[in-house]
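Researcher: Please predict.
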Amino acid sequence: WLDKENVTPITMSPWGKEQLDDLEIANTYIPHSIDTVSEFKPTDKIGKENAREFLGVAEDDFLVVMNAANKANKSIHRKAFAEALMAFSVFRKKVPNSYLYIHTDPKGIIGGFHLPRLAEACGLDMDAVIFPDPTDYRLGIDPKDLAGIYSAGDVALQLCYGGGFEIGVVEAQACGTRVITVDWTGPKDLVAEDGFKVHGQLFWDEAQASWWKIPSIASIVTELENAYEVSKAEGRSSKKAREFAKQFDKEKVWNHYWLPFLKGLQ
């Protein structure tokens, strides 16, 4: 279907472009975009409150933030919640004043995992895990408040078994927050030089007739430790992460990618 003469595939990540280039299928690279000017930018506020006070963590606590939809394919969760929670449980034994904010539905009522039960299975104290207010989450949280959540974190833990882009990786960095993500598929090309990547093990997905990769728990723990040391030494906010993410600003993507593409269709 992608190879038909009247079809022009748009690939949203360098990795995706590589896949079609390898198959000699003509395609155009246009990445996802975000608003890095008025929405996703460093801020210490959620609404009118100090972000860390709003989340209930102290300034000297180590805060890990995650933003991932809790939707699963039966018993398999592409967003790697199990690996993330187990790794954080191991890490917290070494850094007891660390906390995990997960921007998602905790009960998985739209087909995801029951995360409090999963956390308990990982030996994780639920006092260390923070979820958004369920009503606010259902009604939709303002992107500017989401930026406050990202900005409050020492690191954003954005994992997956594989993804075409994973926009949370870019959103977090636009807010000046370093990220931990995977070293494969779309996310591997979305990390600034001071970010962190985890490796994993191949996993065959019969439904897609293709490979996923499960993030290594040991590797996640290692990168959490690295992020902790960097945050202590250099502070939470990263200018490198922010500058890297600016390439995905909506105006830049429109002017540099969409406009030339659309003009070429005329």
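Model: The longest strand covers residues 62-67.
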